[in-house]
Amino acid sequence: MKPRHKRALIIVGALATLAIAAVLILNALNSNIALYVTPSEVAAGKAPKGQTFRIGGMVKDGSLKRDELVVHFTITDLVKEISVSYKGILPDLFKEGKGAVVQGKLDTDGQFIASEVLAKHDENYMPPEAKHALEQAQKNGAK
């Protein structure tokens, strides 16, 4: 085999290896992406089906119910509401009337089954996408 053919074979092999690595990395990243959706978008059917995503908003006052380790509460963007079920221990800062972001999936009944619950850090902070989503939901709900 001529040296020219050997170099071409090595280059083709390296490109194939890079292509396979890129596909594997993109596949891993795609499976770990959790989209952020508001309760209004979920109610409008814009939530990803069969995929993990996040819902953010306020925990509705009077909606927190405990059933042993399962906690039921409602997340609202002040226009629409989504019922959430979470099995586990809630963060210390999680309270009714405060901001929260929950990650999980919708079940067939439209109930959101959370795998993770995040509470906001202090009185003044809200993630920028959550704040923007709440403002948009209020504007769209007022129309």
- Alpha plus pi helix count: 3
Low-confidence sequence ranges: none
Strand content: 25-35%
Q: Characterize the quaternary organization of these chains.
A: single chain
- The global form is elongated
Model description:
The chain is α+β, with helices and mostly antiparallel strands. It folds into two domains: 1-32; 35-142, Beta Barrel (OB fold (Dihydrolipoamide Acetyltransferase, E2P)), CATH 2.40.50. The protein contains three helices and seven strands, in the order αβαββββββα. β1, α2 and β2 form a beta-alpha-beta unit. The mean pLDDT is 84.
Describe, in short, the structure shown.
The chain is 35% helix and 30% strand.
Sum up the structure in keywords.
35% helix; five-stranded mixed barrel; single chain; OB fold (Dihydrolipoamide Acetyltransferase, E2P); 143 residues; 30% strand; alpha+beta
Please describe the topology of this protein.
Layout: H1 3-32, E1 35-37, H2 39-43, E2 53-59, E3 65-67, E4 70-76, E5 81-87, E6 99-106, E7 112-119, H3 128-142
